[in-house]
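Notes to self after the Tuesday call (sharing in case useful).
The group wants a holo model before anyone commits to mutagenesis around the pocket. I volunteered. Ligand is magnesium ion. Logging inputs and output together so the record is complete.
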Amino acid sequence: MHATILSIAHRKGGVGKTCLTLHLATALATRQHKKVIILDTDSQQSATQYRAYEQQHLYPNQAPPYPIEAVRPEQLYEQIKQKRTEYDIIFIDVPRVTEANEDSQLTIALTYCDAVLIPVVAGELEGLSTLGFIKLIRGIQTYKAKKGYHFSYHGVLNKRNRRSENDQAIAFMKQQDVPMFETSLSDVKALSKPHSFESILNHKEGNQRFAPFYEEFLQKFQPENA
Ligand SMILES: Nc1ncnc2c1ncn2[C@@H]1O[C@H](COP(=O)(O)OP(=O)(O)OP(=O)(O)O)[C@@H](O)[C@H]1O
Ligand SMILES: [Mg+2]
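Result:
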């Protein structure tokens, strides 16, 4: 086994990196029966803390469907090396870029990835941050291509709300030559609560809102072949 390494990533905070990572990991573990792990490199440890909360309050007697491990950025390489043969899919949850961690840690983490999914929130594109991130991702792609490694990235519209802003956001990303998902994720409560134990696909509204995106994710990221 040789794990596919993925990250739902952006420099910006609050775009849904952790939330989508949890939704996808849970669906892949419970629906696709993949061996999944989330490596939480965010010092805020939102994914790790969410799991701890669920385990304590919601599913006290249940074994989680996959592990979530907090990893310091400097331990990431060792962790990936160890886990690559054990898992089908490794998600790296990355922090937002603050002055304290800058782009270098993000660049290192994403260089380990086979593919990156960029959540885009309309009205929060803030040109420079997003443009800078696209440049960073392209740099990684060029670097990996030179070494003979494949690396792909896609954008997906998250928290879809008012129409004109959404179209502008998609047009902006396409202008930058970022391949965009045809499906998007709406701004709804059903998507805001990621369960790391139970797939959103088991719930009627969640399934309606998530399933089309999930299908496209399976096609584009091909974890089937992992
Ligand atoms: N499609 C959606 N609909 C409604 N709420 C959403 C959606 N996606 C994410 N959220 C909510 O938006 C908030 C931010 O999401 P999340 O914590 O995943 O962002 P993040 O990019 O990981 O942020 P950070 O940079 O702080 O780690 C959370 O409260 C989450 O539940
Ligand atoms: Mg996060």
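Two things stood out.
The pocket of adenosine-5'-triphosphate (ligand 1) is lined by residues 13-19, 42, 46, 95-96, 158-159, 185, 187-188, 191-192 (CB under 6 Å).
The CA atoms of residues 107 and 136 lie 7 Å apart.
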